[in-house]
Write a structure and sequence with these properties.
TIM Barrel, 2 domains, 15 helices, binds flavin mononucleotide
Length: about 350
């Protein structure tokens, strides 16, 4: 896949996710093999007004390269201004969000709402492309709802506007995150595309990543929810794609180590108070399916010192060692759902 100077064969990419793909999580995913990472989306309006929280989201480190900064907005002016600001932070490329379905974004005419205004979508794209020297890409969904799937109409407009790659989530806006992503629309889009297509939606395992490439013919794949609490998915997908052989699944030691690493990065970038606070939502996915997990989880989400959180995690690891020795760690149980079944313990 080629975007400007950047050339990577069959990249496995971390999707932009608000409140998830901050600096800490991006760097964790990089360490685990993600080829490209995206920032959380950043409001163009907030950037042009110099809102501190949004400006902070532009910060990255060299280890994250190649990375994309993603912006969203509903006017040409704000998007152009935000693009120029974002360019100063030297991303490998700039991505425009045309896919967010939420009220606070789509409800204000930005994100997926622009799928209902393909003309304006093209105008924003063209103006942003002209405003910066770096490549500009877009991320969108297949349409607003089932009755108005228009990705095949949107694609050439974006191409003509100078968009250099398209990440496509195989759902409509009205589906939000329900139902299943329809990969056949990604395939149909790829078949007509002159630019690289990055396929996105419901990749929960390395096998899914391989299947996504095979079924869509896409140039790259992008993983969102499947990476939360599971950064291993990148190295697993890369290994399967390049060698055809699966890596062993991570066991409790790997998962606890990743949680600790994530916490340390989080504290490094956000300080103890917010670093610890923001990690709280992640423990349940790192520890999902492990024995007696609710007890430790309850303690983890109350602890305020990062050092004590690490102590709790290491003590829990010792506990798990005991369960493993006694043959008492087993697969299955109330904490497993479709997702975590793919994260199952491996002995
Ligand atoms: C918590 C969360 C936050 C998200 N934030 C963004 C965002 O900031 N920008 C964006 O383009 N998509 C965002 N998405 C959508 C994902 O990038 C991705 O398109 C979607 O989750 C489908 O991929 P998946 O099935 O691999 O999760 C978000 C999704 C989730 C679950």
């Amino acid at each position: 896949m080629k975007i400007g100077e950047l050339e990577i064969e069959r990249p496995v990419i971390l999707a932009p996710m608000e409140d998830v793909t901050d600096r800490a999580f991006r760097q964790l995913c990089k360490r685990h093999g993600a080829d490209i990472v995206y920032t959380e989306f950043i409001s163009a309006e907030a950037l042009r007004r110099g809102v501190e929280k949004s400006l902070r989201k532009l910060k990255t480190d060299p280890i994250e390269r190649p990375f994309a900064i993603q912006i969203f907005g509903n006017t040409i002016e704000s998007m152009v201004e935000a693009a120029v600001i974002a360019e100063e932070y030297h991303p490998d490329y700039l991505d425009i969000n045309f896919g967010c379905p939420t009220k606070k974004v789509a409800g204000k005419g930005a994100g997926a709402a622009l799928l209902r205004e393909p003309e304006k979508m093209a105008q924003i794209s063209e103006a942003v492309v002209k405003a910066v020297k770096i490549p500009v890409t877009a991320k969108t969904r297949i349409g607003w709802d089932f009755d108005s799937i228009n990705i095949l109409d949107v694609l050439p407009r974006l191409e003509d506007a100078g968009i250099q790659a398209l990440a496509l989530h195989g759902r409509t806006r009205s589906q939000m995150y329900k139902g299943k992503a329809d990969w056949s629309w990604i395939r149909a889009t790829k078949e007509r595309a002159r630019i690289p297509i990055i396929a996105n939606g419901d990749i929960w395992s390395a096998d899914d990543a391989v299947a996504m490439f095979a079924e869509t013919g896409a140039d790259g794949v992008m993983i969102g929810r499947g990476s939360i609490g599971n950064p291993f998915i990148f190295e697993e997908a890369k290994a399967l794609l390049t060698t055809g052989k699966p890596l062993p699944l991570p066991d409790f030691r790997h998962r606890i180590a990743a949680a600790i690493e994530h916490l340390q990065l989080s504290v490094q970038f956000k300080g103890e108070k917010y670093g610890v606070l923001e990690m709280r939502r992640h423990y349940s996915t790192y520890l999902k399916g492990l024995p007696m997990v609710s007890r430790v989880r309850n303690k983890l989400v109350r602890e305020e010192s990062w050092e004590l959180v690490i102590e709790l995690l290491l003590a829990y690891q010792q506990e798990c060692e005991g369960y493993a020795r006694d043959g008492k760690i087993h697969v299955g149980g109330e904490y497993l759902n479709d997702h975590s079944e793919k994260l199952i313990l491996n002995y």
